[in-house]
Design a protein that fits this description.
By secondary structure, this protein is α/β, with parallel strands linked by helices. Helix content is 32%, strand content 26%. The chain has 7 helices and 9 strands, in the order αααβαβαββαβββαββ. The protein is globular, with a radius of gyration of 17 Å. Residues 1-7 have low confidence and may be disordered.
Length: 239
Amino acid sequence: MTTPWVSDPLLEQLAYYRARAAEYDEWWLRQGRYDRGAALNAEWFAEADQVRAALAAFHPAGRVLEFACGTGLWSERLLASAEHLTCLDGSPEMLALNQARLRSPNVDYIQANLFEWQPVARYDAVFFGFWLSHVPPERFAAFWDLVAACLAPGGRVFFVDSRHEPSSTAVDHRLPEREATTLRRRLNDGREFQIYKLFYEPAELTRRLNDLGWRFEARQTEHYFLYGSGSRADSLKPS
């Protein structure tokens, strides 16, 4: 069951995440179609803990902006150290779930298409979880220009994303070759969508970001996650 009424790939990607909102957490919690058995699930959660520890060490403090905040799985972590958190997502369904999860007066919400949005404030830290892989390759540099535009002097960035690992996705999903830029995803009700999904290697991603003027280090866990942190090479600490 496909969605031929969506002609723009980016709109189809947004439609997918709107439709997926109510079942999104099943992926992270290894439930339903994402349950890969006790051993693989345990490895997933252990590696997720590694990334959470790295984020805690990064300590996103002050004014923090989260791109593609989703249901709030990472927003909770950010709120633990942020003075104020701004959560941005193109899906009102995701934002509603996020707001219900956090229920905090220290969070603002913005519904916007990230490929059209421009910041009106600057932030001490920007975070995005499992979003970079959905940025089309031709928009890579423009996306990082947007990240830079969101940062206050001395501002920092942290991200986490997926490695090319077949057991990370649903049992009825098939990963394409690593070099592919799109794939098809299926919902619990059988509807299918085509989305962007790019997989990066740490060394190559670090090199590309350095070429764009970032001081960045990307790392990976053994099987499932790519993550990293950095700042603009020309960023100045506030005086």
